[in-house]
Amino acid sequence: MAFLNAFKSLVTVTVLSLTLAACSKVPGVDVTQGAAMQNQGALMIDVREPGEYAAGHAPGTQLIPLGQLERRISELAAHKDKPVVLICRSGNRSGQAQEILAKAGFTQALNVEGGMNAWAKAGLPVLTGLALR
């Protein structure tokens, strides 16, 4: 009986956590909104891996792979209360990056819905090669 009650509690907590996570999702921006924000001075971060970035990325983006984002957040401190636009291939990893930045106190982190797939499909400029740092 104790096991059953513990299991029910675990299921309840899990369902509540998933529900809250789904409800707390901040809407993203489409590629034209993301490009416009970048043109107005927003920082745009590409969270893909270097090889993906080299194959094609939006001009003016800063490459910070998702796996490095948490340990490199200090590099972004000046943008904590400014728009930060996040992009990846399809919008999934940049959505995860948005959550990481939100938890770190970034108030205007936005995910580009559809990522570089949608960016290229919209005919927006795409550069190839690695970023110079």
From TrEMBL:
PROSITE patterns from the UniProt entry: RHODANESE_3
Keyword rRNA processing: no
Record flagged with keyword Secreted: no
Signal peptide boundaries: 1-24
Organism: Rhodoferax ferrireducens
PANTHER family, A to Z: FAD-DEPENDENT OXIDOREDUCTASE, PYRIDINE NUCLEOTIDE-DISULPHIDE OXIDOREDUCTASE
Database matches in InterPro entries: GlpE_sulfurtransferase, Rhodanese-like_dom, Rhodanese-like_dom_sf
SMART domains, alphabetized: RHOD (SM00450)
Listed name of the protein: Sulfurtransferase
Domain Rhodanese: from-to ranges: 38-128
Coiled-coil spans in chain: none
MF GO annotations: transferase activity
Keyword field: Signal, Transferase
